[in-house]
Write a structure and sequence with these properties.
Layout lengths: L1 E6 L5 E4 L1 H11 L4 E6 L5 E7 L3 H14 L13 H10 L2 E7 L2 E2 L5 E7 L5 E10 L1
Antiparallel strand pairs: 1-8, 2-7, 3-5, 3-8, 4-7, 5-6
Amino acid sequence: MLEVPVKSSERNQLIDVTELVQVAVSKSKAKDGICVIYCPHTTAAVTINESADPAVVRDILSKLRGLVPHDAGYSHTEGNADAHIKSALVGNSRIVLVKGGKLILGQWEGLFLCEFDGPRSRKLLVSVLKE
């Protein structure tokens, strides 16, 4: 298992981590198998979505802000209840196939760390299970 450090610079941000995860896969020396990407933070998440058009990221963040506003009178009083809810909605892990030592993603797809309580230093845990 490898740790992939990621720093966010905004409170809500989707950070393309595709290349960072690919480096971890390459370090594993696995040719074929599955890659598990896990985000061990309760106010962040990981997802796969379009990475070619930055408007997609803006739309996702905009919709999540609308669905789960920052200050909506939550019971959790630390000021980040919205981040916990957004993280729960998006999810903390993804599985991607590996073939020939490369992540198998669709033509426009990328892996994103979803920051909902930044800026912070985060990490992703990456494990490649060989076929």
